[in-house]
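cron nightly-structures :: item 1 of 1
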Amino acid sequence: MFHPLTRLDQLDQYWFRRGQALAQFRPNLVLARMFSRSADGPPYALLALLCLVSNMPALTAFGWNLLTAFALELPLYVAFKHACRRERPARALPGVVASVQPVDRFSLPSGHTAAAFLVTLVVIGHAGWLGLILLPWAMAVGVSRVVLGVHYPGDVVAGAALGSLVAFAVITWGG
């Protein structure tokens, strides 16, 4: 019997392999590493703290929204990751070698992508349409995770959705 998730998994693997082809060109790999590193966690905490101590009401509100969003997103991210338990491509697909060392075993959702979209949407919530200038960066973070071999495209889509939904909720209901 055909299962719809089987087809989704096949599509995910197909697009993963296409993304991996980008890694064959060294400049793409360098860019992927750069975008991936730009979405590592510690700079977000520093940004939020700097905003909180700025004594500028707009920046303080942004800092609180950012901290609140991450306080909601991180446990959801961990819960989804452990509930889904999807093996990373390098563990699941023959011949795949990740170009970076992931911090954990499972791939769904992409935490880097979730964080990048969360920040982008919180910025949009505070800066309006001007915040859209961050959208290409958030998308590049997601693509970088596939190029580096640590996520499937579906993981990236799930991460983008998670980060976006949490940011939207915080901006809408948290002010």
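cron nightly-structures :: done
The CA atoms of residues 24 and 52 lie 43 Å apart.
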